[in-house]
Amino acid sequence: MPMHMPQIPDTLPTDGKPFNLSRRRFVGASLSALVLGALLPGKVVRAAQSQAAEIKPGTRVPAFLEIRPDGTALLRSPFVEGGQGIYTAFAQIVGEKLDIAPDRFSVECAPPGADYLLVNGARFTGGSFSVRSSFEVMRRLGASTRHMLLQAAATRLKVPLASLTTQPGVVVHTASGRTLSYSELAALAAALQPPEQVPLRARKDFRWIGKSVPRLDAHDKSTGKVKYNIDAEVEGMLLAAVQHAPRMGGEPEAIANESEVRAMPGVHSIHRLPGAVAVVARRWWQARRAVESLKVDWKEAAPGTPHAMPANFSSAGMRATLAAAPGPGISAESIGDAAKALESASQVIEATYDAPYLVHGQLEPPSALARWNTDGTLELWLPNQAQEMFQQAAARAAGIAPDKVIVHSSPLGGFFGRHFLYGTANPFPQAIQLAKAVGRPVKLIWSREEEFLRDALRPMGLARLRAGIDENGLPQALYAEAVGESPTERWFGRQPDKANDSAVEGIAEKPYAIPDRRVAQVYLEHPPTIGFWRSVGHSMNDFLYESFFDEVADAGKQDPYELRLRLLADKPRHKALLQAVAELSGGWKRGPFSASDGSKRARGVAMASPFGSEVATIAEVSIENGSVVVHDVWVAFDPGSIVNPAIVEAQVRSAVALGLSSTLLEEAVYENGMPRVRNFGAYAILPPGRMPRVHVRIVESGTPMGGVGEPGLPGVPPAVINAVAALTGQRVRSLPLSKTHFAGA
Amino acid sequence: MELTINGTKRQVDAAADTPLLWVIREELGLTGTKYGCGAAQCGACTVLADGHPIRSCVMPVSAVANQAITTIESIEEDPVGKRVVEAWIEHQVPQCGYCQSGQVLTATALLKQNAKPSEAEIAAAMINLCRCGTYNAIADAMQQLAKG
After folding, report:
1. CATH of the domain at B108
2. B-chain residues within 8 Å CB-CB of A229?
3. Residues 6 or more apart whose Cβ sits within 8 Å of residue A516
4. Nearest CB to B88: which of A82, A218, A362?
5. How far apart are alpha carbons A693 and A652 in whole angstroms?
6. Could you report the per-residue pLDDT of A221-280, keeping only the tens digit for each?
7. Sheet holding A178-181, edge to edge
8. Which of A258, A265, A358, B68 has its CA 20 to 30 A from that of A723?
9. Which residues of chain B neighbour A85 with C-beta distances below 8 Å?
10. Residues B69 and B79 occupy one common structural domain
11. B127 lies in which domain range?
């Protein structure tokens, strides 16, 4: 008997009727409590339910681990894999202590449950939190399980526990040479209580942590075997496609050709949904073709409809609105007296920078599969970064209790922040409603065009920056107003008297020794739906700040690298990292200089402090045919300590690619309340031909473990923009670079 | 309609203008071929038709009824495909993995046509999008494969 809990049967009889599901399931034991701690503001905080109060997250071994008859281990990860490599990292961490080799693990995302609330009492895959928030928990789980296996072996062999040791997957009684495999001991061990305290292997003895262990999913992902949510299938399911109101808030009225569309091949039924129409069909292609054939009369949003999209909204207009929004805003950081210091400065420079709305552009379009079961439960397969929050929201959408909602979380075909709860940006409420209406399981897939229409956008960002420079050319004062709204405020509630951290991250609390500083947020709501996008506020704010920093350096006739070094004199971690990236690039040189191919090039540098990590970035650029070419990006990255160097490096490369994509190409343009384009191609993302060489140096400074998935991104836009300025003399203050044509160079 | 998929003849019941992608995914149940954009922009849906990479999301099924279709499910049955998969693993290419079926098939088609492609030939062929930015790892794997 493996140490496991009852599982959902693999084959599911339905006959087109609600599925009859046994309640012998683990999820029933630990449901629905959602305790959100300090990280998330009050709006979503709920009192812990009694069951949750009894469960200390991250301690109950059977919730996480199952040792199977073949000696392999199944690990239920609190966090979902979407490319970050966390499933492999968790196998390394647990395996290190448990004494099972990482390649003997299979890992899947855990269902909702109090056991998994490991991020300040909540759970979400985001904020680059997965490994850093659970490293100690995973170590202890591995060590506790190994201890339980040793106890079981001591009982079985009738020997003292201290006389036993382990080799990977096996308990060994050295004195007698007897061995027992973990799988033989699993059932006995499962009946034991996890120990309160267990010794942990010292870092110097690590075999797998800190090594570039191969990813567990590389083969399956190279051979098409991974099942993403869009691939989910249950017996008797129908497929659905939707057409949304062109502007948020619009509602379907008359459909001119309903009977003709109902007669199209494969069509089962046509449905009116909030803000959309849907077709349910035998196949998705049939559903899509039919729903796009519907001639729908859309009624504009009624006055006062929350988050209705104004018919005259445009992204260009929004930029002007942000630029004109009056300060001084709510202070996020105030040191000294910036206003006074600006008055007495020998030179004051000011600039306004902005970055556009962006789509997530994860390659897997959103989908949701819903099945109502005869026992009153609702089973959902849906891409999500927050299992309990989706369970709660689905329960509300379905009008049932949260413990009646079963959530399945497949690996994500990319996410970058796409799969949090974003109201109308999530397809699952539509799938729930459609499955109820047709009395059969329904899988809804949004076409790429519908995804462009309803994605939660990275908000447009704009900052007004002023700096006072003293007679020595050094910055004395910085005064910054970041205008706009962050997704944290949108989705977790705004505190009107407080600047929002993710609205100002990357501008406030920079490490440079600038004596007088004021950083503020000027709050202004965005009409479109906004969401978290890889590195959130940092994705634009470090661009706004670090680019302006170079302007300040130039105005004071300082080299931007040397000025950074000077202002980091009392910040040894930052200073060392800046020197590391310079060394990695062969020594700092700004240029312009001539490269060996005859092209004229220059370099730019930037620093960022995202998600508990530190990063220093240098980029080298040239101009070809009026466009910027990025040849090399060097990144020195200090996340404190790491689990898997190869995966960390891959994450940095990935973040560089996305950061560069946003620097060079991406902007979601709105006109007349609608996105101007609704697919890739017209919305350009980084193609392989524009990917630079990326050179990564990981620095383990030994500070508390920081995030890995996002921090590589924020330094890229300013490093590139600063390089372009050094090369062309042209200071670009508005992304993306594709809006600017560069002559000569 | 009869289709030859991965060396096997299969009868499918689909309208002639249905994109090959949806016949593969929904009629044949082979979900390794991915829907990304439906507009021949990203390449996630790439399959081989008589050895040539095609964007199955815009290819009417009737247009390839007489051609041998290869999908990712049979990639390791082909010696070149097997080598590509091995190189993908050695270079730890996939991250989210969603585009990789198309990447692996595109690479296989190139190498079967041209066993030792130049860097420029690789760049000209490997044009599928990857939102995780695995481009450097793909390039490294291709360079190794191009050595034969």
Report:
1. 1.10.150.120
2. none
3. A335, A336, A337, A338, A340, A341, A342, A468, A476, A477, A478
4. A218
5. 12
6. 999 999 999 999 999 999 999 999 999 999 999 999 999 999 999 999 999 999 999 999
7. A164-167, A170-173, A178-181
8. A358
9. 95
10. no
11. 75-145
**A215 to B94: CB separation less than 8 angstroms, yes or no:** yes
My answer on whether B11 and B47 are in the same domain is: yes
- Find the residue in B nearest to A687 (Cα): B129
Return d(Cα A634, Cα A620) in angstroms, integer: 9
CB-closest option in B22, B88, B131 to A414:
B131
| Domain end among B43, B73, B103 | B73
Helix, strand, coil percentages in chain B from 3-state DSSP, rounded to 5: 45, 15, 40
Amino acid at A456: A
Closest by Cβ to A657, choosing from B100, B126, B135: B135
Q: Are A221 and B97 in contact (CB under 8 A)?
A: yes
**Cα distance from A401 to chain B (closest Cα, Å)?**
33
Residues of chain A with pLDDT under 50: 1-51, 745
Per-residue burial over A178-189, b if 16 or more Cβ lie within 10 Å, else e, is ebbbbbbbbebb
Residue A27 in contact with residue A113, Cβ under 8 Å?
yes
Contacts of A654 in chain B (CB under 8 A): 95, 132-134
Contact criterion met (CB below 8 Å) for B126 and B53: no
Structure tokens at A375: 């026992």
All structural domains of chain A, each given as residue ranges with its CATH number in brackets, are 31-222 (3.30.365.10), 229-299+366-445 (3.30.365.10), 325-357+458-739 (3.30.365.10)
B57 with B22, same domain: the answer is yes
Check whether residue B28 and residue B80 sit in a common domain. Answer: no
Indicate whether B121 and B58 sit together in one domain: no
Mutate to test the interface with B, among A363, A654, A664, A678 (most CBs of B within 10 A): A363
Q: Inspect the interface and report whether the beta carbons of A688 and B128 lie closer than 8 Å.
A: yes
CATH of the domain at B14: 3.10.20.30
Of B19, B33, B127, the CB nearest to A688: B127
**Quick one: B79 and B48 in the same domain?**
no
Q: CA A504 to CA A543: how far, in whole Å? A: 12
Rounded Cα distance between A382 and A371, Å, is: 12
Tell me if chain A has a CB within 8 Å of the CB of B39. yes
Judgement on whether residues B79 and B103 belong to the same structural domain of the protein = yes
* Over residues B124-132, mean pLDDT: 98
Residues of chain B in contact with residue A265, where contact means CB-CB under 8 angstroms, are 15
Label residue A302 exposed, middle or buried (CB < 10 Å: 0-12, 13-18, 19+).
exposed
Same domain, B12 and B50: yes
Contacts of B92 in chain A (CB under 8 A): 214-215, 218, 646, 650
B137 and A364 within 8 Å at the Cβ level: the answer is no
Contacts of B16 in chain A (CB under 8 A): none
Q: DSSP of A30-88, one letter per residue?
A: S-------TTS-GGG--PPPHHHHH--TT--HHHHEEE-TTS-EEEEESS--SSS-HHH
| Confidence at residue A16, expressed as pLDDT on a 0 to 100 scale | 37
CB contact B89 to A (< 8 Å): yes
Q: Looking at the 3D structure of chain B, how many domains does it have?
A: 2
Last residue of a domain, one of B22, B49, B73: B73
* Four-CA torsion A432, A435, A439, A441, nearest 10 degrees: -120
Look at B98 and A231 and tell me if their CB atoms are within 8 Å. Answer: no
Residue B91's pLDDT band (cuts 50, 70, 90): very high
**A221, A447, A689 ranked by CB distance to B97: nearest:** A221
Tokens of B11: 């009868």
The DSSP secondary-structure symbol of A310 reads P
pLDDT at residue A14 in the model: 34
Name the residue in chain A with its Cα closest to that of B19: A285
Question: What is the per-residue pLDDT across A626-637, written as a single tens digit (0 to 9) for each?
Answer: 999 999 999 999
Contact A414 B31 (CB under 8 A): no
**Is the Cβ of B121 closer than 8 Å to some Cβ of chain A?**
no
